[in-house]
Amino acid sequence: xxxxxxxxxxxxxxxxxxxxxxxxxxxxxxxxxxxxxxxxxxxxxxxxxxxxxxxxxxxxxxxxxxxxxxxxxxxxxxxxxxxxxxxxxxxxxxxxxxxxxxxxxxxxxxxxxxxxxxxxxxxxxxxxxxxxxxxxxxxxxxxxxxxxxxxxxxxxxxxxxxxxxxxxxxxxxxxxxxxxxxxxxxxxxxxxxxxxxxxxxxxxxxxxxxxxxxxxxxxxxxxxxxxxxxxxxxxxxxxxxxxxxxxxxxxxxxxxxxxxxxxxxxxxxxxxxxxxxxxxxxxxxxxxxxxxxxxxxxxxxxxxxxxxxxxxxxxxxx
Length: 318
Known about the structure:
CATH topology of the largest domain: Rossmann fold
CATH superfamily of the largest domain: NAD(P)-binding Rossmann-like Domain
Helix content: 25-40%
Number of domains: 2
């Protein structure tokens, strides 16, 4: 179902991304492994991190190349897409696990730590999404106009598109969010970025549906380097209990033709569970024919409008 597809795995050097890269390759995908090779806090860089995963895949008989770099850099993100198309003739799937942590209580969080986390975790999702979306939209439009003979040829010499115009298969972008999007103590920056991804996905999925492109968000749950930043006695699980490899099959599924028309969704994978999150929805509503005033809200909001709604929600997010 993904055999012969071209898949970019951003943040593919460690943990969940590494597991996804191996999973895709094991099913015959040609994988481009991206990673900056930085520490969990975003410092440093090491090109060998991406190359190591690509080498592991090749040693197991798969097809993989490394493309180290910073996906929050718009110029680099454009180059990542362009280089992949030049090398393979197409891009079928992009999944993006790139992310860093710089935790701190809100009133102690530095401006630098706020900006670095937002830049890496949110801008780092949008930059490659924009680059891929631009390529896919332009290619789809050209295919429709030319009857299916405009995109660069595949590595096997075929053009990778059908003869009737448009893509031969839907393209797919998977943005990785986190459970912290609901709120997480000491992670205002990380939570804001991960929540922003969900709004971004819902917006862009609507923009690209006519170009035959799926856009989804994934909330994964698995043991990674980030888990190890939590003191061992407070970690929610061990690596053996929640291995990152158990997230990877859903990633491969979303890259495959079996996931056709699944778009605009926030999905979950962790351990033996997969699922679909609901979108934000209004829980209660009150109508006042003449409009609301401070006085009428004070009288009716708790007792009438929100009588069945929990309004003190802090505990549920800690």
